[in-house]
Amino acid sequence: MGRWEPNASGRLSQAAMELYVERGFEQTTVAEIAERAGLTARTFFRYFADKREVLFAGSAVLQEQLVSALDGVPASASPMEAVAAALDAAATVLGGRRDFSRQRQAVIAANAELRERELIKMATLSLALADGLRQRGVADPDASLAAEAGIAVFRVAFERWVSEPDDRELSQVMRESLAQLRALTAAG
Amino acid sequence: MGRWEPNASGRLSQAAMELYVERGFEQTTVAEIAERAGLTARTFFRYFADKREVLFAGSAVLQEQLVSALDGVPASASPMEAVAAALDAAATVLGGRRDFSRQRQAVIAANAELRERELIKMATLSLALADGLRQRGVADPDASLAAEAGIAVFRVAFERWVSEPDDRELSQVMRESLAQLRALTAAG
How far apart are CA B115 and CA A3, in angstroms? Predict the structure, then answer.
């Protein structure tokens, strides 16, 4: 039951991230997360299946934004132009939360199980993006290749964005990385 | 202690694959694999840590071939030319075993845990390839981008090769996929 708590989900996320950074993911319990947020474990489980899902709760939104961005792309656009639009949409979802993203990346990098979960997330994004391209009439293997290349750019750009000291926009780093991939493949 | 058995590893691999295809990976036990191979479970465990590792025993050799292929590439070659040489080497390792690869792919596709393990293998290959490129003096993010793009091509080409009905060489499908990625990125 429990009464409604304002922004319980946000408070739980923030408390969880603080504890994962302070103590490590494995050493943190749901009870501790709830306590830090001033809530109960029962409330925690109303929002998240387990403590791992705090880190992956945004995946569905990210995927939805990535794929639905394809709808706004003119039919005449090339597959990689469509992918670029999807990456722009992803940058919009993630770009405003650099501190959160940095902390999240550090927590994931420190734990093998989380790194695996993140790999699965990226593979799922790639499959969804390939499906979206097929629905635009892009045939295989082009759909798969463009999606995999797009997710490769996403991954490398995201990693750069969270680790570089200057305060660039994620969308800018994504576009730059895409241009670099183009230059690399053109060179040989 | 058990006496030495000729080609025990190969017999166990073949027996395991037969059973995985016939019954499914989860429904197969190590005892059954050993029995089918005419060997003991004890002998099985001399070669494989568990029944999953039968499917991934080749990963180390694949990675070694992929990375050491870079040594044979002239210093003047572009990063993607180096990646293309690595893919050629991978095709040489895998290309002669299409029936085995087909069966393996089907077994992996049917099991979530194996799909995850395969994702981890591909991510590990990408990191190793990026490291190899860095050792050639390729700076980041180019090293990561070229490696990720190379593994994307590898994955898509391998999938095509095992699923298409005609009997093309894996190396040919890899080169074609790389050319398609180049055309895709050049177009936009």
Answer: 42
Out of B119, B141, B153, closest to residue A180 by CB:
B141
In chain B, what residues touch A142 (CB-CB under 8 Å)? 180, 184
Spatial distance between the Cα atoms of B87 and A155, rounded to a whole number of angstroms: 21
A15-70 residue pLDDT tens:
999 999 999 999 999 999 999 999 999 999 999 999 999 999 889 999 999 999 99
User: In angstroms, rounded to a whole number, what is the distance separating the alpha carbons of residues A180 and B37?
Assistant: 51
Q: Which stretches of chain A are DSSP H helices?
A: 8-23, 30-37, 41-47, 53-56, 59-68, 79-95, 98-109, 112-135, 142-163, 170-187
Q: What is the ipTM of this complex?
A: 0.87
- With a CB cutoff of 8 Å and minimum separation 6, the contacts of A9 are A47, A57
| Structure token pair of residue A186 | 């053109």
Confidence of residue B108 (pLDDT cuts 50, 70, 90): very high
Nearest-CB residue to A149 (from B78, B80, B149): B149
The beta-carbon neighbor of B180 closest among A119, A141, A153 is A141
For B54-185, where are the E strands, in sequence order?
Answer: none
Token pair of B169, please?
A: 């060489």
Contact A146, A138 (CB under 8 A): yes
In a mutagenesis test of the B interface, which of A80, A156, A161, A163 is the best target, namely the one with the most B β-carbons within 10 Å?
A: A156
B79-103 as b/e: b if 16+ CB within 10 A = bbebbbbbbbbbbebbbeeeeebeb
Residue of B nearest to A77 (CA): B188
Judged by CB atoms closer than 8 Å, whether chains meet at B180 and A152 is answered as: no
Q: Which domains are assigned to chain A? A: 8-53 (1.10.10.60), 58-187 (1.10.357.10)
Contact between residue B30 and residue B44 where contact means Cβ atoms under 8 Å apart: yes
Q: Select the residue of A78, A116, A181 nearest B120 (Cβ to Cβ).
A: A116
Shortest Cα–Cα distance, A153 to chain B (Å): 7
Query: Per the CB < 8 Å rule, is B187 touching A78?
Result: yes
